[in-house]
Amino acid sequence: MRKEDCFYLGRVVSKYSFRGEVLLKLDTDEPELYEELESVFVELGKNLVPFLINKSSLHKSTLLRVKFDDVDDEATADSILGKGVFLPLTMLPELSGNQFYFHEVVGFTLLDTTYGDIGIIDSVNDSSAQVLFVAIKDDKELLIPVTDDIVKKVDRTTKTIHVQTPEGLVDLYLDN
Description:
The protein is mainly β.
């Protein structure tokens, strides 16, 4: 399985028992959706390796207690500690309305209420304090905050996102 065809579900954060059980910290608002998984992909080196799940249950808020097949002792559990856990993109729940996955909107056109077409989304930067659309317009990069106040409509049919940017923001990028 290629990493590009998967989404990040979480990380193996600790051992739970001497029998190889581990805790996964899930990166989701709805951990209950992933309680009945049959398998996941664990990132080992540059590869995603399938791990079959023998049993799992939610543990506290966003932790999933997992017993993988063939992980039967602490030493084997140690070998996957800190590793990323992935699932195929096809397993993502479908979103509607103005909700979207970051990977889903790459390539969408940003349409501003004042300026019209302000660029094509090249990526989404979620590593800063504020999530940002990184859009390209006429070889210039625009950084547009992703907030409910700015994102007005997501149109999957036309692959557009209608935004209302704060006064002067677009001018910073396009009037230079």
